[in-house]
Write a structure and sequence with these properties.
Elements lengths: L1 H31 L20 H7 L2 H31 L7 H8 L7 H11 L7 H7 L11 H29 L3 H9 L4 H28 L4 H6 L11 H10 L4 H28 L5
Length: 291
């Protein structure tokens, strides 16, 4: 009993910190979403309660729904590319060998760069007038592409950039999962005459199912919050074709100074993220991934 009381004493400061950093800000934003608060409203008497007007406006806000579509499109395509490339490199660098540790370190480099730096770097790399990707394409006869000049190519450019930066994170987790697999299964399958393709689909993928679903959920939720790369590469353009929800919320709060409306957008986005993550977890439970 004494030991349990001591544990509670040590957990108390952590609980207080979580309340201060998570619970209180949430209720503040939730309360603000029912007001017409302006970013520069420091006088409480000038803030009026507007009920659910902000939420009603969101339902008819075409720009918000466009930003939601952009967010989901970028998130889904980015996560799929990260999972594919991460698994590919994890399988490629799974086995031990001379120089493998050095190659693994090189693969992880993009992950340690700040997103703003990555966005600026790729923006310069994709410029038609600079010797970047277009120069490489020109060597094989492909004409110059204005990557950030149209909605389709700008979206592809963002997907490439985000995938390039965060694929190493997926690679790292999947590689750790591969290294934790029991070798006895593969040895038995090899004795039974199974080839590499059969072992991959019959042994590796089923055993990696849990870690892959976890990585998929985590990266999907993280990609929904994408902001710095969008801000530095396209600014949501051309037009609003690459404007995700996070960028639209920032525009409402710090460009239009509509803090109350931006708070309502935050609450809606939070529930969308919870719903998406919950859907993945529910699917995982039904399919037997999470038991």
């Amino acid at each position: 009993m004494k030991m349990r009381n001591i544990e509670k004493v040590f957990l108390f400061p952590t609980a207080i910190l979580l309340i201060i950093l998570i619970v209180l800000p949430f209720f503040f934003v939730f309360g603000t979403s029912f007001t017409d608060r302006n970013t520069f409203d420091f006088d409480r008497n000038s803030i009026d309660f507007v009920g659910n007007d902000n939420y009603s406006s969101i339902m008819t806000d075409s720009r918000f729904w466009n930003s939601m579509r952009v967010t989901l499109t970028i998130s889904l395509l980015t996560v799929c590319s990260q999972m594919f490339l991460g698994l590919f490199f994890a399988l490629l660098l799974w086995k031990e060998g001379k120089g493998i540790d050095f190659v693994r370190g090189i693969v992880l480099l993009p992950m340690v760069l700040p997103p703003v730096v990555v966005g600026l770097m790729w923006r310069m790399f994709l410029q038609p007038t600079l010797p970047g990707l277009n120069y490489i394409f020109g060597l094989v006869g492909i004409s110059t592409i204005d990557w950030l000049g149209s909605s389709i190519t700008a979206t592809i450019a963002i997907i490439m950039t985000v995938s390039w930066q965060w694929m190493p994170f997926v690679f790292l987790l999947l590689l750790a999962g591969l290294q934790s697999l029991p070798t006895s299964c593969f040895e038995s399958a090899k004795i039974d005459g199974a080839n590499k393709t059969q072992m991959f689909f019959r042994i590796t993928l089923p055993l990696m199912k849990r870690i892959m679903v976890f990585v998929l959920i985590y990266r999907f939720v993280e990609t929904l919050k994408i902001f710095p790369i969008i801000h530095t590469m396209t600014g949501g353009g051309p037009g609003i074709s690459t404007e995700p929800v996070s960028y639209y919320i920032w525009m409402q709060a710090f460009n239009s100074y509509r803090t109350g409306y931006a708070s309502a957008l935050v609450i809606i986005t939070l529930f969308v993220i919870i719903f998406a993550a919950g859907g993945f977890i529910l699917y995982g439970k039904k399919s037997g991934v999470f038991k």
